[in-house]
Amino acid sequence: MAVEFQDTGSTLSEALSRTASSIQGDAITLRQLMELIGEQGLLLFCMFLTVPFLLPVSIPGVSTVFGLVIILIGIGVTVNRLPWLPARLMNRMLATDSLIQAMEKGATMFARLDRLIRPRLLVLTDGAVINRINGLALVLGGILLLFPFGLVPFSNTLPAFAILFLAVGILQRDGLFIIAGHLMNVATIIYFGALFIGALLAGQGIMALIGG
What we know:
Elements: H1 12-22, E1 27-29, H2 30-37, H3 42-54, H4 62-79, H5 87-90, E2 93-95, H6 96-114, H7 128-146, H8 157-172, H9 175-211
Antiparallel strand pairs: 1-2
């Protein structure tokens, strides 16, 4: 079915704080987390999934799982359909202590972000073609989040910011954040390219030393 992404009824920081205070028990599934987020929907859920990568809070093993869910949500935005979210991903258990810590810190960060968000540059947020472009950019951000550079500084942070900015821009009709999201995707690709070239040159140097 077609899906419309409505503007949020509360600020991002309020929604994050409310969700963090609603979490109970030692573990929670992605499905339960999504249900706690409630009517604000998939794009807000997408923003929540970026929080662990924006803050110095470690939640082991989430890059692949969260990246895949973000890709599926991006596909849903692209084709204007509710995305298929596989049960294996949605039933993945997460430790609540680290998650609550990340959400509480994220609420503080989002409180600053809330003051900057408003509808503007609507030409970048309205229309089927623009929605497809922005959806594909969201998919690209999710793919970049999957890259196995987790121990390299900023390798998860850059695509997480791209995803966050794009989701905020789409949901709040803020074209400035859409631009920021696209630019962060480009910055991530450049950064990964530099890492790849650096690793290649280092490998060639090592081989030269061995061969010499």
